[in-house]
């Protein structure tokens, strides 16, 4: 019997017992829809997180001063643990200085594109009478500001003169201008803004307004969001009475440079050149590229693990298919006997029932795919992410549906194929 005829027989059998067919496919539908939904939502979250991290600069390297391990402790089973000098306070000689950075630029002239410097001046509240806005004060150098890729709405950016003279000028977000100046950005530019930080008021002149972009990780309301207030680096350092150096900075690698390898080279160079005799601190470096890769791998692993758990229902569905096929064979015993008496081979009988099992699983799989995509779209929309179709999940679902049909359909089909035609014809 041709495969096409077997498929038509299977469909006619399902139509003749609609409710039984739906209940049989229910386990497959639930399993497939769960796997598709979970993998699609996982892809959406992973894509969004990766995109957000890449926007921060996938070629960036974070370089910072960290506490150095000071001792080794061996346990009874031979394992070695490193001890740390907890509570150590950084002295002037522990910071990264401008002289170190100049030497680094000369040493890695072909690998380092820019050095991004910043200094936190605290978080506080910008005030104008009863009007307020939450802000984070950050001092930045010119390279840092360029790397932020801000969209300027009104006014100007920070200039070299502002940086050199440590002027008390700032760039503010449109959210701050909306809160304090009723959205009139032209009025905001040139105005003074009072910021209350650490029990003290600071006054700055607004020179520009930039467009604030919501982070995909932000869950706060608009009133609670802290936006950055950018000022010249030296202005923030003077405000903090900081003159010794930097505890952390960001390096932008040149085009085509392997940031992971450069991380190791920078760590070794700094530690060998400047921190070899420092008992408490050393330089550590991490690349955004490795962080993005680690984050993607972690999200993928979690998504796959949850999908495997959801896929258990597929096995339950497969057992249901086997059960209904055994029932179907019992009901059609005389039909099987008649076909074998008319010359049907064991192979054709076996193929007929395996085909019927595959058709049941495939129909359940296709319904599950549609339901899974709908669930994924609803879930990603509710979470605020862009829906991302899991092609791999769909291919896996279709393939797995066929395998379930073959695996759980083979035993009933083989049982039907081995029936004695005389006994089958006598079956009541």
UniProtKB/TrEMBL annotation:
It is a multi-pass membrane protein. Residues 308-421 form the ABC3 transporter permease C-terminal domain. Keywords: Cell membrane, Membrane, Transmembrane, Transmembrane helix. Pfam families: FtsX, MacB_PCD. The chain crosses the membrane at residues 21-42, 304-329, 358-379, 391-411. Belongs to the ABC-4 integral membrane protein family. This is ABC transporter permease. It comes from Anaerosacchariphilus hominis.
